Amino acid sequence: VQLVESGGGLVQPGGSLRLSCEASGFTFSTNGMNWVRQAPGKEREAVASISSPIVTAWYAEAVKGRFTISRDNAKNMLYLQLNSLKPEDTAVYFCVNDAYSTWGQGTQVTVS
């Protein structure tokens, strides 16, 4: 089982990024997925989740209306569109399976 994130980077406040997560080694289409972030000196926090095969999404209040989670089950891919980024969104973003048992290596998002 493997999750590999990509798409992080340095962006100015108000900018956008799209994070991707490639999943392998399990039946992606029947598993809910999560994006979790960890800012320096802070605890990890869930920012968004998406279910499957019936697709429903949940967002943390801090990102609601700015972030959009999506998935492509045919490609085993999970995405997170980050818009209207704020400095407080700076964190390492992790792709995580539904059981929180498998984590990707993380991708750094810096808003400055």
Question: What does the model show?
Answer:
This protein is an all-beta fold. It contains no helices and 10 strands. It has strands at residues 2-6, 9-11, 17-24, 33-38, 45-50, 57-59, 67-72, 77-82, 91-97, 107-111. The strands form 2 sheets. The protein has a 6-stranded mixed sheet with strand order 2-10-9-4-5-6, with no helix packed on it. The protein has a 4-stranded antiparallel sheet with strand order 1-3-8-7, with no helix packed on it. Strand 4 and strand 5 (45-50) form a beta hairpin. It is globular and about 35 Å long. The protein starts with a strand and ends with a strand. The mean pLDDT is 97.
Write the layout of secondary structure elements.
Elements: E1 2-6, E2 9-11, E3 17-24, E4 33-38, E5 45-50, E6 57-59, E7 67-72, E8 77-82, E9 91-97, E10 107-111
Parallel strand pairs: 2-10
Antiparallel strand pairs: 1-3, 3-8, 4-5, 4-9, 5-6, 7-8, 9-10
